[in-house]
Every structure is written in structure tokens, then in C-alpha cells.
């Protein structure tokens, strides 16, 4: 609907507890398709905390 068209979030389906693997795998596949050397995966991990991981293709 209209709300979905205005949203700026990325929704990726995944099993409970598998967010990190899902986001990292998606990023690595995208890096390969775009021939990118570096990629950054970020996640909210609750209670005002966050985590970030930098991937490098070698």
C-alpha cells in the first residue's frame, strides 16, 4: 500500500535468530555482483545498541 511505498526500510525474510547470517550473505552476494572491494553490514541489536561489520573481498 501507500505506507509501504513511502517506507525506506529493507525487509529481508529470515528464520528467527538468523539476521546476521542473512544480512551478511546478502551483502557478500551484492559485493560480488557489483565487484565491490568493501561492504558494511549494520544491525540494531536492541536496547539502544548496534553492531557493524566490514567485509573485504581479497
UniProtKB/TrEMBL annotation:
GO terms for molecular function: acetyl-CoA C-acyltransferase activity. Keywords: Transferase. The keyword Transport does not apply. InterPro entries: Thiolase-like, Thiolase-like_sf_Thiolase, Thiolase_AS, Thiolase_C. Residues 9-57 form the Thiolase C-terminal domain. The keyword Iron does not apply. One of its GO terms (biological process) is fatty acid beta-oxidation. It comes from the Bacteria. It holds the Pfam family Thiolase_C. SUPFAM superfamilies: Thiolase-like. This is Acetyl-CoA acetyltransferase.
Amino acid at each position: 500500500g501507500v505506507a509501504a511505498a513511502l517506507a525506506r526500510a529493507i525487509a529481508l525474510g529470515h528464520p528467527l535468530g538468523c539476521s546476521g547470517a542473512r544480512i551478511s550473505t546478502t551483502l557478500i552476494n551484492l559485493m560480488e555482483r557489483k565487484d565491490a572491494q568493501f561492504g558494511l553490514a549494520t544491525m540494531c541489536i536492541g536496547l539502544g545498541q548496534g553492531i557493524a561489520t566490514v567485509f573485504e573481498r581479497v
